[in-house]
Write a structure and sequence with these properties.
The chain is built from 3 helices and 2 strands; from the N terminus they run ββααα. With about 120 residues, it is mainly α. A hairpin with a 7-residue loop joins strand 1 and strand 2. It is elongated. The two termini are about 35 Å apart.
């Protein structure tokens, strides 16, 4: 049985979307080169553009940072060793990368998808 053809230029938030090709293109798992799904046309990462609740992710990041920081402060006070406190500001770049790749970038791609979809008379529920 043939695989049902999908119009790649008809907006559908349930299908992965390629921001470079601006369409729901065919994709494959990147495998060794990239552990993500990539567009078979241009090689860029395809994104899940469904609406997400990023507040939960941000809450987990914040809770983790506060918990680790609290433990480090308690250790520093008990051991009278303030060197572990260097970890707190040192973790900021790591947390920023998590924020950028898990919250900011997907939000920007979703906004680009919604602008593209609006041009095609798509209305979000």
């Amino acid at each position: 049985m043939d695989k049902q053809k999908v119009d790649p230029y008809k907006p559908n938030p349930n299908l992965p979307w390629c921001p470079k090709c601006e369409g729901h293109t065919e994709y494959e798992y990147g495998g060794d080169t990239a552990p993500v799904d990539v567009c078979t046309i241009c090689g860029w990462k395809v994104f899940d553009v469904k609406k997400k609740n990023y507040t939960t992710t941000l809450n987990y990041i914040t809770a983790t940072l506060v918990s680790i920081s609290t433990l480090l402060v308690i250790y520093a006070i008990m051991a009278n060793d303030w060197i572990p406190l260097i970890v707190i500001p040192g973790s900021i770049p790591i947390l920023y990368m998590v924020y950028y790749f898990k919250i900011y970038q997907p939000t920007q791609i979703r906004e680009k998808f919604l602008a593209w979809a609006k041009e095609r008379n798509y209305r979000e529920n």
